[in-house]
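Title: Request for sanity check on Cytidylate kinase prediction

Description:
We are preparing a figure and want to confirm that the structure record we downloaded matches what your pipeline produces today. Could someone re-run it with the sequence below and paste the raw C-alpha cells into this thread? We only need the C-alpha cell string, no images.
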Amino acid sequence: MIVAVDGPAASGKGTIAKALGHHYGLPVLDTGLLYRAVGLSVLKAGGDPDHEDDALAACGFDDATLADPALRSEAVGSLASRVSVHQSVRDALVQRQRDFATQPGGAILDGRDIGTVIAPDADAKIFVTASVQVRAQRRFQDALSHGGHPDMDSLIADIQARDTRDMSRDHAPLKQADGADLLDTSDLTIDAAVQRAIALVDAQLEGRASGVIR
C-alpha cells in the first residue's frame, strides 16, 4: 500500500502524511528533507545551490544529516527549492525514494512529485493545498513558537517565490497528479484535515478494491 501526499510549502501535507502513517501503521518519508539535506550540504560546502554541479555533488550527504534541526529552517527550505530544479539532483534522489515506497508493507510519502514521478501507481493520492495567506500565517506562528521574529510580508514573498519555482521548473513540476484528490486545508483544523485525508484515502482504496480506478 503506497500513499502519495503532494502539495506546496506549509499546506499541511507533512502533518497529514504523519497522521496517515500512524492511522495505517506505515512508515513515512518526508521527501522534502532529502532536498533540504542537499541544500544544507551545498551551503556548508560553500557552493552555489543554483549551480548544478555544486548541487549534484551534495547529493552524497550522510544519512545523519537528515536529523539536523537546521533542515527545518526557512532558509534551508528555500535552498531545497533551488537545488530541486536541477534534473541531475532529482535523478540522484529518485531511487532512494522509490526504494522507500516499495518496501514490504508499503509506505506514505509526502513531497511535490510523489504522485506524478516517484510513485505514479500509488494506491492513493492526495494533493494538499491552502491559500498563500494561510500558509504564511502558519509559518509565522511556527517561527514565533520557536522564538523567532518573522516578517509576514517576507514570508508571503518567500512562499510565492517557492510556489512559482516549484510549479514552473522544467523537471517534475509541482502539480496535482492524475487520480489525486484535492484537499484544501485553508479553513480546516488539523484534526478535520486529517479525518478528511483518511476518508479520501479509504475511498480510493475501496475504489481500487472494487475495480473502479479513477
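Thanks, this matches our download. The mean pLDDT is 94.
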